[in-house]
């Protein structure tokens, strides 16, 4: 349970951090460290260099102006406690209050969770369902990646090796109904399956559009497009929710492990989709 | 014990059998009180010393290289690079270690490896990090051998063999009374089912390990063990040392649960590494090694048959039990599964058969109420099924088959009424008779379940000894060679001493856990520490008190038999209260003459059976969509004789029920079928219940002194509370959803599967 030897760097600016990443292709960024350091202790990860982001200014702010902007180094607790986040995207605030355990929530960061792209993370599905996007800085300057394009595969994102997430943007979702339902692993607390649902509402109780995303079941956080199609344009009724839940796992490539088989997870995707929709609209 | 001449040896001090009993209702001022743990301050401030806290000048840290194969022969081992790593001081393996016999037919470092985790080599270095790195530099080569990982494959006719004699450890053990076939013929109803229990891992908070230090040819070992005397004997034997050259110390312990009731290899490996390096060596197991190599609860398969008359009277009980004991006979691997079938219910026709099966998995060892926990899951579900088949209340069925004597031993119980009283207490406290299920809401269903237990332990394991030394200032040191494995034995035993001596608790210091400083006491297993050593301490205190009264007789001008001690003062019958003399006045007068009391735990009664019994009732809620079972509340009632300290008893019950919830719902060692690798030898995948999983647990106190068991009337409570929890939960799950699950754990997936194939209630 001891990591390999590594260099430790603590740059004072983003430019310096990008520079270090460019010079050390197998370097890793250290934000909260609650995913990276255990992996290093198990020697599942052995970066030559750790780049500690903690001294870089301006990566922790949370601002709301219709849309919501959250600095990548904002901790789960900061997001959870933010009145602006609670107002604009209560599901995001709530989920940051149930991630991991208190120690994780004190240190862990929203940007770190998205960059790590753990297949059982909570926030990946939540940000995906919220239609969020991330701003990244790299040697080629700044660009924006939609959550829809961020998660590529197991622990893999579309970030270039020298790119750093600087902030997360959540669009203006005024009036939307949302909820995240999770069936957690009894030991680790990770999502065996988690489903996040966001319903943009039109007139007269109709669902203008729906964004649903699943985590835990698949290699990466994934949209539940079959369920979304069922919901779009419908009014909120028990039958509509049941139909969406029944369709939720359609087309998903679901993984099994020693705790939960693929079949069990498939079943849970339906159950949790229904529960998330019921809670969002209840 | 007869001497060679046939005479009884002269005994120093008092045998506990000679003491007057503490009767029910006796006027006791310290025993029976919820005194806080005497070591509590040290524990909460971090001052209490555990095996891993030992720090000696020049101390090294050791790590063990373990077999990556389930069954293999070691064909090559090159430790050269490891030994050359700066900071490494000693490397041990089959290449250079002495050939020390271990596990009956194996060696300390054997070249035949029989499970993933079997010891291959060990390294001592200046830090754990260096030792870890050194292990990675060892080049090891193996010839893999065919292996078996579970009962089915091990018992197959053409199974690969762990040993030339096959995969059975000895012949099957058969117990019979009456005529089983006749009992089954006479039955109006027969229940016949097979139950499967899993490998649970002890997961003591403090892992196994020790620190070894030599002073010339004398060895001191700080070991995390349930028996300092057994470790001393085993280590001395392995190293060819006389026993007085080995000192074993255990002051505080983060749990043992049976897994530390024997000496394991690391006690000897650490000593050898210390000898080799000339430095003290600490060898603590990490969580993975802990969960591979030093014990687990044996998986079982139990085919159960019950026969009963229409009125519920049992006519036949039979079990055919196969138990997976892992790769090695470590001592204590053969859990007593049959016992509860033989004794929990009155039945004339009983047959039990037990087979112990070797597999290429980590060795099984006693785990809190070994055998009884596994057996109760099967028997108590079968009884529940029988009750429903007969349309009888499950509690009523149990009452109709009440056993008031030990049928296997053919002796009456010392407390034949205890189980019936536990039934009454638990049922009343739970509200069993009037229980109404709440109306089903959404996917959640509620149910209640009951289970009883019998436990062969708790009565004590004589002999055991204690000394009392009365100091000049009137304070007392009590010395015994037992150990406190985290249960609070220190506190309970101090209460017994203080009560008998008539001193306040803070005038008594109890010293234990050191072979050099106390007389023999047995292993802390079988829930026996309080009931073995409590009477010995009481006897030593009585012996010392008698001597004090004799010494005081001259000064106080009163006969010894007129004296009593209360709150540290000697009272003489007929004298006014304010004339009482502080004990210290007498001890100061006679100083430096020291009063010393010696006590011995006398034998258990020969004509009666001392056992412990109890019952638990639980309410569960099942989420029929996810399969999740939540335990809503637990009511427990257990016989432990006189309660010495209610807080400590409640703690044992809460801890036992908590482990029972884990056994019922979560805990399950998963072994990869293709390799024999344990996939969840950690606490991230293997769920041990946490505070969030534990519902309100109410422990109802029976507190019925067992006057015939021993002169304190107290019996053990360490193990029994775990026994009935899992079957009570399984019975409650059945009550909730009408599905009987006969395989543990009741995982969410298993509950859902059972719901999907819902069988008709039987």
TrEMBL record, chain A:
Residue span, FAD-binding PCMH-type domain: 1-175
Kinase keyword on record: no
Designated name of the protein: Aerobic carbon monoxide dehydrogenase (Quinone), medium chain
Top-level lineage group: Bacteria
Record PANTHER family: XANTHINE DEHYDROGENASE SUBUNIT C-RELATED
Gene Ontology molecular function terms on file: carbon-monoxide oxygenase activity; FAD binding
InterPro entries: CO_DH_flav_C, CO_DH_flav_C_dom_sf, Diverse_Substr_Oxidored, FAD-bd_PCMH, FAD-bd_PCMH-like_sf, FAD-bd_PCMH_sub1, FAD-bd_PCMH_sub2, Mopterin_DH_FAD-bd
Species whose genome carries this gene: uncultured Thermomicrobiales bacterium
Documented EC number(s): 1.2.5.3
Record's keyword terms, sorted: FAD, Flavoprotein, Oxidoreductase
């Amino acid at each position: 349970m001891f990591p390999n030897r590594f260099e430790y760097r603590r740059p004072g600016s983003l430019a310096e951090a990008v520079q270090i990443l460019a010079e050390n292709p197998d370097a890793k960024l250290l934000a909260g460290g609650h995913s990276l350091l255990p992996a290093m202790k198990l020697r599942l990860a052995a970066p030559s260099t750790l780049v500690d982001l903690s001294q870089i200014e301006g990566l922790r702010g949370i601002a709301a102006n219709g849309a919501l902007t959250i600095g990548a180094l904002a901790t789960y607790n900061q997001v959870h406690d933010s009145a602006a986040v609670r107002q604009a995207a209560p599901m995001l605030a709530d989920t940051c209050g149930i991630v991991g355990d208190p120690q994780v929530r004190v240190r862990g960061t929203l940007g770190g969770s998205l960059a790590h792209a753990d297949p059982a993370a909570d926030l990946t599905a939540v940000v995906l369902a919220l239609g969020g996007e991330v701003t990244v800085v790299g040697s080629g300057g700044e660009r924006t990646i939609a959550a829809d394009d961020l998660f590529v595969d197991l622990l893999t994102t579309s970030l270039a090796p020298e790119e750093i997430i600087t902030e997360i943007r959540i669009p203006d979702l005024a009036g939307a109904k949302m909820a995240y339902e999770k069936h957690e692993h009894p030991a680790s607390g990770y999502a065996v399956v988690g489903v996040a649902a966001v319903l943009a509402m039109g007139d007269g109780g109709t669902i203008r559009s729906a964004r649903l995303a699943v985590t835990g079941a698949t290699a990466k956080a994934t949209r539940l497009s079959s369920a979304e199609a069922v919901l779009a344009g419908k009014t909120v009724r028990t039958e509509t929710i049941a139909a969406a839940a029944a369709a939720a796992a359609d087309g998903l490539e679901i993984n099994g492990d020693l705790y939960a088989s693929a079949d069990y997870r498939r079943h849970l995707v339906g159950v949790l989709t229904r529960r998330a929709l019921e809670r969002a609209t209840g | 014990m007869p001497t060679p001449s046939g005479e009884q040896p002269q005994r120093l001090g008092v045998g506990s059998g000679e003491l007057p009993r503490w009767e029910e209702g006796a006027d006791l001022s310290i025993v029976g009180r919820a005194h806080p743990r005497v070591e509590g301050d040290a524990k909460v401030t971090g001052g209490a010393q555990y095996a891993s806290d030992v720090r000696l000048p020049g101390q090294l840290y050791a790590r063990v290289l373990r077999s990556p194969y389930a069954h293999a022969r070691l064909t090559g081992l090159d430790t050269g690079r490891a030994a050359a790593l700066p900071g490494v001081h000693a490397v041990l393996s089959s290449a250079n270690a002495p050939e020390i016999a271990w596990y009956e037919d194996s060696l300390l470092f054997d070249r035949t490896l029989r499970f993933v985790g079997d010891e291959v080599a060990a390294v001592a270095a200046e830090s754990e990090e260096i030792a870890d790195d050194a292990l990675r530099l060892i080049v090891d080569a193996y010839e893999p051998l065919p292996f078996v990982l579970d009962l089915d494959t091990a018992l197959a006719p053409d199974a690969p063999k762990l040993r030339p004699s096959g995969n059975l450890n000895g012949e099957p053990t058969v117990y019979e009374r009456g005529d089983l076939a006749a009992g089954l013929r006479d039955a109006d109803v027969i229940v016949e089912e097979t139950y499967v229990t899993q490998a649970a891992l002890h997961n003591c908070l403090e892992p196994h390990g020790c620190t070894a230090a030599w002073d010339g040819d004398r060895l001191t070992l700080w070991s995390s063990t349930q028996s300092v005397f057994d470790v001393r004997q085993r280590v001395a034997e392995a190293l060819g040392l006389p026993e007085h050259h080995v000192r074993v110390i255990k002051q505080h312990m983060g749990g043992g649960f049976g897994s530390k009731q024997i000496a394991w290899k690391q006690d000897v490996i650490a000593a050898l590494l210390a000898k080799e390096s000339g430095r003290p060596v600490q060898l603590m197991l990490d969580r993975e090694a802990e969960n591979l190599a030093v014990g687990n609860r044996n998986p079982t398969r139990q085919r159960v048959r019950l026969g009963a008359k229409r009125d519920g009277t049992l006519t036949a009980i039979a079990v055919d039990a196969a138990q997976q004991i892992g790769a090695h006979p470590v001592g204590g691997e053969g859990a007593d599964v049959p016992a509860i079938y033989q004794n929990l219910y009155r039945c004339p026709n009983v047959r039990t058969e037990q087979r112990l099966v070797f597999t290429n998995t980590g060795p099984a060892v006693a785990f809190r109420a070994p055998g009884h926990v596994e057996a109760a899951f099967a028997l108590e579900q079968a009884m529940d099924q029988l009750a429903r088949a007969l349309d009888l209340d499950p509690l009523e069925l149990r009452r109709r088959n009440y056993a008031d004597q030990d049928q296997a031993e053919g002796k009456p119980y010392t407390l034949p009424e205890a189980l019936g009283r536990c039934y009454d207490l638990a049922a009343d406290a739970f509200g069993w008779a009037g229980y109404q299920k709440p109306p089903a809401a959404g996917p959640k269903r509620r149910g209640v379940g009951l289970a009883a237990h019998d436990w062969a332990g708790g009565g004590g394991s004589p002999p055991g000894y204690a000394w009392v030394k009365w100091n000049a200032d009137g304070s007392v040191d009590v010395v015994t060679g037992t150990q406190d494995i985290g249960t609070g034995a220190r506190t309970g035993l101090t209460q017994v001493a203080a009560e008998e001596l008539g001193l306040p608790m803070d005038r008594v210091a109890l010293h234990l856990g050191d072979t050099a400083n106390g007389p023999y006491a047995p292993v802390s297993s079988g829930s026996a520490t309080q009931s073995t050593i409590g009477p010995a301490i009481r006897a030593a205190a009585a012996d010392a008190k008698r001597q004090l009264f004799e010494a005081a007789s001259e000064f106080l001008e009163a006969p010894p038999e007129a004296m009593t001690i209360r709150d540290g003062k000697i009272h003489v019958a007929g004298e006014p209260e304010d004339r009482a003399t502080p004990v210290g006045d007498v001890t100061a007068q006679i100083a430096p003459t020291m009063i010393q009391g010696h006590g011995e735990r006398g034998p258990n009664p020969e004509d009666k059976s001392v056992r412990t019994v109890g019952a638990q009732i639980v309410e569960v809620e099942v989420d029929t969509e996810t399969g999740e079972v939540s335990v809503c509340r637990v009511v427990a009632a257990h016989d432990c004789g006189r309660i010495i300290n209610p807080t400590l008893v409640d703690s044992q019950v809460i801890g036992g029920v908590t482990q029972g919830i884990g056994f019922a719902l979560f805990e399950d060692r998963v072994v990869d079928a293709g390799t024999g690798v344990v996939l969840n030898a950690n606490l991230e995948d293997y769920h041990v219940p946490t505070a969030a999983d534990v519902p309100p647990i109410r422990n109802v106190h029976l507190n019925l002194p067992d006057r015939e068991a021993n002169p304190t009337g107290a019996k053990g409570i360490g193990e029994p509370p775990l026994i009935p929890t899992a079957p009570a939960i399984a019975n409650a799950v059945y009550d909730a959803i009408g599905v009987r699950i006969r395989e543990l754990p009741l995982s969410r997936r298993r509950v859902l599967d059972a719901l999907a194939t819902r069988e008709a209630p039987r």
